[in-house]
Amino acid sequence: MTRYVLIKVLRSIFTLWIVVSAVFLVLRASGDPLYSVFSLGTPEATLDVFRAKWGIDKSIFEQYVIYLGDILRGDFGTSFFDGQSAWDLVTERLPKTLLLGGTTFVISVIAGVLLGTIAALKRGTVWDRGIMTAAVASFSMPSYFLALLLILLFSLKLRWLPTAGADTWKHLILPATTLGLTLSGSIARFTRSAMLEVLRQSYMRTARAKGAPRWRQIAWHALPNAAIPTVTVIGFQLGWLIGGSVVIETVFAWPGAGRLFITSVGVRDFAVVQLFILMVASTVILANLLVDILYGFLDPRISVTGGGGK
Amino acid sequence: MNINKRRPQGGTTSPGSGIMKSAKALMIAASITVSLGAGAVFAASDDRPSLKIAMPSTWASHGPTVNSNFGARVAYSIYDTLVWRNYLSNADGSGSELVPGLATSWEQVSPTEWDFAIRQGVKFHDGTTMTTADVAFSINNTYGEGEEPFAASGTIASVVAVDDKTVRITTKNPDPALLARMATVMGQIYPQAYYQKVGKEEFGRVPIGTGPYKWAGRVAGESVTLEANDDYWGEKPPLSSIKFVEVPEVSSRIAGLITGEYDIVTSLPPDQTRPIDNDAATEIRAVSVENVHMITFRQYKDDRPQADKRIRKAMALSLNRALLADKLWNGLTVAGTYDFAGYGAYSMPDRGALPYDPEEAKRLLAEAGYDGEEITIRIVSGYYTNMTRAMEVGVEMWKEVGLNVKLDIIENWGQMGQEGDAYNASDNMWMTDPGGGMWFSWGREGGHRLKDWGGTPPAEFAALGTAIEQGSDFDTRMKAYMGLLDLWDDLVPAILLYRPVEAYGVRKDLDWTPYTFFYMDFRANNVKDNG
């Protein structure tokens, strides 16, 4: 078990290193941040002073070695644009993104699993078709389009909810709904197919035969067995959630890290972009690691000892 | 349309607006009926209204010479200038009258020396009293070794506090535009003690001036807030606070204005204003700003077609700039020139732009022996509103006269380099004097377009510009200015497209006039809330 986790962790670190290096190189190959930060008329001499100050006057290789050393020491650099440390900038905005992402995630997992289960149990009925149509529609529709439809209805027509910003809990509803609809749609579809697979199994027949109540059959026998593919999908969706929030944060002027990322990419604010991607990559890798470990609990037949286990 | 700083989201198009184009039709299709009046929000213990203004972005630093689009909108309320430009001397907010600001009067004591009488008893936001030493320090900080360089200051030799009422500015040569310079951001005054204590960067983060509103904080990515400065030396500020909020999406700004969440929204593309036009409680207030969008040539590339001035001129003549201005900017602006109404008596509105004359263009091309060689124009995608669309049409117009033009669209300014034969750019009027604009950028020492000549302007250009910069009487300067414009039309260093338009969405019952630059003025004579 320890060896298994160790290998997994080492593999994760290797993946992170690849990500960090790729981002480092691509960013530097695709634009000079100085032209984003300084006025048109700034003399080259001044620019050179800042190139030196920011360490981008050195060769790419030198910069890379310094960068790796810095992040190992926990120094993620300074934003060219704001003059603040990249860590402060990103972590200052992160709670807002986590609030939006967390709310979305909880809502869509509950709604998705619930609706998917209902659709599976009522297979072939109007319920099933209705839920699946809605699910396909919600995850096929581009989220920014859905966002505008919701703004049009709930803000402009009904005047119930604010259009943009993050001042009150009311501001959370539209962005979380937009993101959540898309996410719950795909979770519902996967839950439905996993449930249908499970419902055909012999242990379900056994549960029925021994007279277990309907809710117990579903909650104790069916759902845990349908959980494997569903959890896999949910794990993948974590990464998607961060990507999706970048768009949604822009439409709803939600002051999260996603928008900071977009702005920073635009002006090639190296430190901020690198840190953000490092964080996203870590999150996704960690989520996948957790999914792997969760498998073991959900299905004891999946051995975590890599073949020789009990 | 962000002119001074190259930051992508500084344009009137926000990063996500491409995505939102498809949603435009949707917004329009929905007939938006408005019932809710956008009432002003009242702050506690203050019966003055406060305003909420949505902009695509906010700026991190509001130092004393910030002249970037979003920084300047805020900073205009924080600082006052030595000489004040009264934009309201024209009803449409384009006035160029220069009136006393932090200086109550001035006198030219010799051809190169000016004495400014400094307003007494003016308080900075930190409670300290403004002195002549602060004035001298602030202006001295904008040139030479100063920490807040501003390009309009190249003519100044020294600024000295003569006594506690007078500041003397000495110029290197006679400088008839000195008052105009003191009405730009280089004439903004701030406290020396505080600046020196906290340093340039921290000062930019927590700025202090003498203006009608004082800094009340910024939440990165969210908003910048100003509060009324009740010790203001002028008329009492009419608003208790102003909150500038970041709303990157055009559609979200429009929706928020209509629902009453915002009182003013900035940076609306002129072709996306229909929902506001159809709304009873809000309206569009648009101005063409003192700026010109252009395609500037890398004429120093000797072996390329654009090195020949006849080919440059043919490109300008065969591009129907008046049509582009009309169609792309909803009839709100005209073909571009370097002559601005803000030059006052020097301005020549009847002179107009270079004509659209494809026949003359063909003749010039034939004379120059143009053989259809490909000419590449580099464009930074999404930076200047309408630029890509204008150039896509342009390619077809050029084809009509046999010009083979290719667009090379890049993502950001960092990728610009020296590639291509021409590229997109823009320039400001800079100050209310013909020594601004063209001469300021293309001729004056340190001008940021000098590189497009290949380093130095032609001798004739430099001579005319110097006569404008140092000329002692109106006639001399006027003659030189006319000569400079004519020379420009002969050399065509750049194709001047049009003056861009800044469109604001505003609550109808809010009296507020936008100016012909990005500054937003919330002083008592320009705001009245009837809501």
Describe this structure in words.
The complex is a heterodimer of chains A (310) and B (531). Chain A is an all-alpha fold and 310 residues long. Chain A contains 12 helices and no strands. In chain A, helix 1 (2-29) runs antiparallel to helix 12 and helix 5 packs across helix 8 (170-199). Chain B has 531 residues and is of the alpha+beta class. Chain B contains 15 helices and 21 strands. The two termini of chain B are 31 Å apart. The model of chain B is unreliable at 1-44 (pLDDT under 50). Chain B folds into 3 domains: 15-77 and 198-287 and 502-529, 3-Layer(aba) Sandwich (D-Maltodextrin-Binding Protein, domain 2); 83-189, Dipeptide-binding Protein, domain 1 (Alpha-Beta Complex); 291-499, Dipeptide-binding Protein, Domain 3 (Dipeptide-binding Protein, domain 3, Roll), CATH 3.10.105.10. In chain B, strand 1 and strand 2 form a beta hairpin. Helices cover 27% and strands 22% of the residues of chain B. Chains A and B meet through helix 2, helix 5, helix 7, helix 10 and helix 11 of A and helix 1 and helix 6 of B.
Question: How do the helices and strands line up, and which of them pair or pack?
Answer:
The complex is a heterodimer of chains A (about 300) and B (about 525).
Chain A: H1 2-29, H2 34-37, H3 44-53, H4 60-72, H5 86-121, H6 126-140, H7 143-157, H8 170-199, H9 202-209, H10 214-251, H11 257-267, H12 270-298
Helix pairs in contact in A: 1-12, 5-6, 5-8, 5-10, 5-12, 6-8, 7-8, 7-10, 8-10, 9-10, 10-11, 10-12, 11-12
Chain B: H1 17-29, E1 41-42, E2 49-55, H2 69-78, E3 83-86, E4 97-100, E5 103-110, E6 113-118, H3 132-140, E7 156-161, E8 166-171, H4 178-182, H5 192-205, E9 213-219, E10 223-228, E11 241-246, H6 250-258, E12 264-268, H7 274-277, E13 282-288, E14 291-297, H8 309-317, H9 321-328, H10 358-368, E15 375-380, H11 387-400, E16 405-410, E17 422-428, H12 437-442, H13 450-453, H14 459-470, H15 474-491, E18 494-498, E19 501-507, E20 510-512, E21 527-529
Parallel strand pairs in B: 2-11, 2-12, 15-16, 15-17
Antiparallel strand pairs in B: 1-2, 3-4, 5-6, 6-8, 7-8, 9-10, 10-11, 12-19, 13-19, 14-17, 14-18, 20-21
Helix pairs in contact in B: 8-10, 14-15
